[in-house]
Amino acid sequence: MSAEPIANPLGPVRGPTPPRRSGRLVPVLAFLLAVLCVSTVALTATLRSTVVSPGFYQAVLDEESAYDRLYSEVLVDPEISPVTRDLLAHLPVPEALVTSNIKVVLGPATVRALTDQQIDAVTGYLRGDRDELRLTVDLAPVLENLADLARVYFGDLVADVQGRDQPDFERFTADLAAGLDDLKEGRAPELPRLPLTEDQADRATDALLTAVPERQRTALRPEIEVALGEGDVATALAATAAAALSDGSRSAAADLRDILQDGTWDLTATLTAAGADLTALEQARDTIRFLTLLEVLALTLALAALVTLWFTGPAAPARRLMRLGQALACAGVLTAAVVLLARLITGGRLFGTPASWAPSVTSLVDDLQRNAVSQAVATGLGAALTGLVGGVLLTGAGWALLVRPDRMPTPTPTAVRTAAAGVACAALAGVLVVPPVFGPSAPRQCQGSSRLCDLRYDEAAYLTSHNAMSTTADRFIGPLQDPDITTQLNTGVRALQLDTYRWESPEDIAARLDSPEFTAEQRRLITGAVDKANPPREGLWLCHGVCRAGAIELVPALEDIGDWLRAHPTEIVTLIVQDDISPEDTEEAFNAAGLDDLLYTPDADPNAPWPTLEEMIDSGRRLVVFAEKADGPAPWYRNFYRYGMETPFAFRSPSEMTCAPHRGGTGKQLFLLNHFITNAGGSRLDAGRVNTRDRVLERTRACEAERGSPVTFIAVDYTTIGDALGAVNELNSRRTQDD
């Protein structure tokens, strides 16, 4: 019998089993997916923290000093003058004052607020927080300022016609009504004939033509010269008025009425009507929504890929750690490569500017684009670095376990898994969280700029309004400022020189009128007002020498300053008081105005270091008050000349200005530069000469070199004439760079 073969219980004998292709493929796919998804999370987080973040755009604008450059570069560009004329609604304002008046009508604070509104509207729409894109501009403050400006210049025109320092609007209205009645009856208005010499007629013609658009002056001049040469004032004024109020002014006003509804400008409708394509924003909104979903999906897949990579990795835990680390490091490298490639492709510019744009506008827009791209690149590289560092840590830990000395204790598998999961999750969280946390955001503001926060109070420069209460808006005789105090603060003034008084008796007036600041005509007008209908009033007032020449109540004015400070929590204001009332009365007035929580108390030692602007703002004590005479008893009410020094102030011409020591001597921490002309009162013409940016900077540097101390307060008449604010901003910019 043949023997039966014995069956092998283990089955047929086979050769070595080759590794399955699918077993190698899963770890590779998991590795690639982890790299791609982690990089996607980093890039989408970067886009989300820049493109749809209001703080990103605000940071870019602030870094490029965009608001300062708007006034110092753009609005002084001759090629932009048609725009500035439109912003002034074609008011007949002398060309030399246009840019200064822009600061009144459209002040820096207003521009910043309006810009922030549009940034919030656009980014909110892109994020999906708003269902529709609606860009609206609240023009109420602009219209109020425009009305104030029109009233100032209309008042000057009326006063010139009447031959007065202050306009008599009631008389002007009555004369105008009578003239209209004459016209209705077919009679020519009875305006006085005024014989003029040839020279007087020429000068009067020049004066009238300043109210006429420049393109019409040449054609209109002969008619006005002939009329004035014959003493026919009516014809000259009629011709001037017809040209000054021609279609430019009327159409601007009509356009303004058409686009405004309750003081609100619907910018979206205006852009659409002008042919602007807003579908790009709609497409961007859809893209942002997609990126948000993509980020969530990528984060989920990245976690799944990293888990898969761990469980399909080599048997040795150390090599699994290295595999995870390599995936995260590669993701960091890939993210950095994409970011840098995008930077290379864009060249730092997202779009080209049309050749028709003014050079100043092109320069500003290009700088903003480059800054925005640089900020976005820095944010993306930060996220990439997080992934790279996490990957390097894991790879290094795995390598250390592989080459550890024999005496080093071997970690348990559980400890290795825990460490790996912790570092991987931290790196993944980092690429997600780093962009919004450490990316650019709205910077901390101090006096309108993030760069000033680290300056001490005595290191900064402040535009100072000389006799700030003496304004055209408040009907002072011989005013030294145009807008009221609140508007001055809105246009960049940060220190106010105020004169406090009680209403004077007739005997007091006689003595005060001897001041060289009053002309003979002003003395006559004031005396007439005293004799007729201006009896003494009780209470405390802000006056300029003589309260009957103009006065505003002290406590309400202080309340306005307090309201402004509370509405602008990152600003500091200084008052330098020419005190003709007692310190006790002053303290009582500040208490009545409710300013106790805002008042800053200087160190009793005048040589002690001042705090930084940021420290003062954080404390809430942002109102510094000095007196020319008093020193206390309130601890916050200190004599200025203990802490500061000044230059002389009685200059009769620009050539007389010096840096010689005056009150306060030398060697003080605070330095007041009196930069105005007093020659029988203030002068707009002189203000136009000395308030230029170059003139202010030139004298400031000369006095700083002579005194060996930085100028703190630059006091000027007519702060809205010239560009003293631009000079102050330049000084502060340089001081932050030197700091």
UniProtKB/TrEMBL annotation:
Keywords: Membrane, Transmembrane, Transmembrane helix. The chain crosses the membrane at residues 290-312, 324-345, 376-403, 415-438. SUPFAM superfamilies: PLC-like phosphodiesterases. Gene3D superfamilies: Phosphatidylinositol (PI) phosphodiesterase (3.20.20.190). It comes from the Bacteria. This is Integral membrane protein. It comes from Streptomyces sindenensis. The lineage of its organism: Bacteria, Bacillati, Actinomycetota, Actinomycetes, Kitasatosporales.
